[in-house]
Amino acid sequence: MNLDGRSVVPALTAEYDIDFNSQQEGKSDTRITYAVITSRSHHPGSVNVLLMYGSARSVAERIDLNVWRSLGTCHGDEVTGEFSDVRRTIAI
46 — phi, psi (to 5°)? Predict the structure, then answer.
């Protein structure tokens, strides 16, 4: 697919969402989504993320992998470095 979501195969004229893998799964209670969809961005060196309480942040690609993983859990005891304010907000 092109960056704009259009197929690069000439025989396919349908346009698809950039996030095609996830948009085709989980459309009903009996069709659950199991796909692992990674964060991605057209911004060099970072990805923009939206946090559950409505804050948005730009996360550098050099983020510590353990911090990145801990932001995706609900346990609340992980060390999250610069995101410690996020963890406190979520824990309340």
Answer: -155, 170
